[in-house]
Amino acid sequence: MLYKGSCHCGRIAFEVEGELERLMDCNCSICSRKGSLLWFVPRDKLQLLTPESDLSAYQFGARSIQHHFCPVCGIHPFGEGSDPAGKRMAAVNVRCLEEVDFSSLPVDHFDGLKL
Question: Do 76 and 35 form a contact (C-beta atoms < 8 A)?
Fold first, then answer.
């Protein structure tokens, strides 16, 4: 299925393709502050509809994940990194997707504080 998403002001817009079956709630220092619910997809399944130059990014710790956000409204629609096998992945904040009832999806809790 194809989903559309954006930040609050619309400066960052994207489409992502896949089956939205499970979400992840991470308690690491940044995810808990953002309050995002994450859906992981291969990076090539996420297509930006706005210029990449409109994105801002934040990295911390091992600097292995780019936490993208809008420099205008501050919303974090997705992040980028690699899985343990080295495959490029996107962590989509499902709260930024249009017409998704994420309350009906199962949520896996990940203890990111222990990393």
Answer: no
pLDDT in tens, 48-86: 999 999 999 998 877 788 999 999 999 999 999 998 899
Q: What would the two tokens of residue 61 be?
A: 């710790």
Q: Which CATH class is domain 2-114?
A: mainly beta
Residue 44: C-alpha distances to residues 18, 23, 76 (Å): 11, 19, 19
Domain boundaries, the chain: 2-114
SS3 state of residue 31: helix
Instruction: Give the pTM.
Output: 0.92
Any idea how long the chain is? 115
